[in-house]
Amino acid sequence: MSAVAIKVLSAGAVKSPVAALVDAYANQTGAKVEISYGTMGLLQEKLAAGERADVMIATVEVLTELEKQGKIAPGSRAALGEIGVGVAVRADAPLPDISTPEAFKQAVLKAKSIVYVDPTKGTSGKHFAGVLQRLGIADAVKSKTVLRAGGYALEAVATGEAEIGVQQTSEILPVKGIKFVGPLPGELQKITTYSAAIMNGAGSAEAASAFIRYLTGKDGRAMFAAKGFAAPVG
């Protein structure tokens, strides 16, 4: 296994648990894992441009589409965990009331600025843009909105560039200098399931399968839980 190199394309939302698991897996097996993180939009752009990978970690929706395109090995998908969308403010700021959709709406309207992921790039951004439309405040907050292409978008809250931020919880918790307020309330919430799958044309399907088994095994489940993910249903 020491000579095997596994190339992985992964959603940024699972970076916190996956990065830790990659290091542990490499130490235990000697396998070399090369991993690139990005938003769903960026990963799809890379694949469209011809980039090769052995394993893809993405949302169920994206993997389903890739399987239809013949890019994913049928039957190779394995669920890793579920995560919701949350809200955060600076560590020294008072906690806004987001207990109900109306309370959250007022908190966003009162905030001087707000940050989230560019809707054309990532899952949480696309969902939150829809939330703003649903609440009828998309135009009202447009001028005070800061968009990020991906990564830990709420670093903008820590630096004071934005007063309040919205992103998947797993991408909020690792950011220093901010405070987690809570999940989006009620019907505004979106729970996303992330899964891993073997790409067609993988250099070593056996090595890719072994890596996925590790991610979904005891150590993998424990790490995902420690990073805020719920166990996948089913």
Main attributes of the structure:
234 residues; alpha/beta; 2 domains; five-stranded mixed beta sheet; 10 strands; elongated
What does this structure look like?
The longest helix has 15 residues, at 15-29. The chain starts with a strand and ends in an 8-residue tail after the last helix. Strands 2-1-3-10-4 form a five-stranded mixed sheet. The protein has a five-stranded mixed sheet with strand order 7-6-8-5-9. The protein folds into two domains: 5-82 and 194-226, Periplasmic binding protein-like II (D-Maltodextrin-Binding Protein, domain 2), CATH 3.40.190; 85-188, D-Maltodextrin-Binding Protein, domain 2. It is built from nine helices and ten strands. The mean pLDDT is 94. Strand 1 (5-11), helix 1 (15-29) and strand 2 form a beta-alpha-beta unit. The protein has helices spanning 15-29, 40-48, 60-68, 101-110, 123-135, 138-141, 155-158, 205-215, 218-226, and strands at 5-11, 32-38, 55-59, 78-83, 85-90, 114-117, 145-148, 164-168, 178-183, 192-198. With 234 residues, the protein is α/β, with parallel strands linked by helices.
Determine the structural class based on helices, strands and strand pairing: alpha/beta
Largest sheet: 5 strands, mixed
Provide the CATH top-level class of the largest domain. Alpha Beta
Number of domains: 2
Give the topology string: H per helix, E per strand. EHEHEHEEHEHHEHEEEHH
Would you give the CATH topology of the largest domain? D-Maltodextrin-Binding Protein, domain 2
Which descriptor suits the 3D outline? elongated
